[in-house]
Amino acid sequence: MTDTTPVQRVAELLKDFRFAMFTTRNAEGRLVSHPLTVQEAEFDGDLWFLVSKSATLVLDAQADERVGVSLSSNDSWVSLSGTAELVDDPAKVRELWSPTVEAWFTNGPDDPEVGLLKFTAESAEYWDSPGGKIASLFSFVKSKITGEPYEGENETVELPQR
Predict the structure, then answer these.
(1) CA distance 55 to 69
(2) Cα–Cα–Cα angle for 10, 37, 9, nearest 5°?
(3) Cystine design at 57: which of 34, 108, 109, 121 (Cβ 3.0–4.6 Å)?
């Protein structure tokens, strides 16, 4: 592990994720997860998503702003808890726009249906297997042979409120 604070470690891990599962509570009170593309690699406590303003997840988040975001790769996982809000900021939409987004919004960034969803994290928990896929496989095999627990990093982090 590098010499970073837990908050910096969360930000460092989030740089490696492209997709997230965004979890809301629907009208019946059930937890529902929605796949979204993370639009910004620099984590400062917020994550931004371009969404359809009429999407179910937006309606759910407007009814109950408390949401969760989870991200995973082959050797690390992050779970974030926080709030979500639909933000009206056409300049930010254009800043985050990419050719990939055009697959969902063919009318471009000025399409009135394009929404900007801001997730503000309050806490995070992460699990990491330092060293990548090979090191993870080695640690798994080692734990099976020796009977010692799998070596990994896990921490719960309260994020500073702005």
Answers:
(1) 17
(2) 5
(3) 34
For the chain, the average pLDDT equals 85
Q: Which residue has the tokens 């604070």?
A: 5
Q: For 14-51, give one letter per residue: b (16+ CB within 10 A) or e.
A: beebeebebbbbeeeeeeeebebbbbeeebebebbbbb
Q: Which domains does the chain have, with CATH numbers?
A: 6-158 (2.30.110.10)
Percent of the chain with pLDDT over 90: 55
Closest CA to 11 of 139, 132, 134, 128: 128
pLDDT in tens, 106-139: 999 999 999 999 999 999 999 887 655 544 444 4
Residue 69 CA, chain-centre distance (Å), reads: 5
- Is 55 strand, coil or helix? coil
pTM across the whole model: 0.81
Tell whether the torsion through CA atoms of 18, 122, 46 and 25 is positive or negative. positive
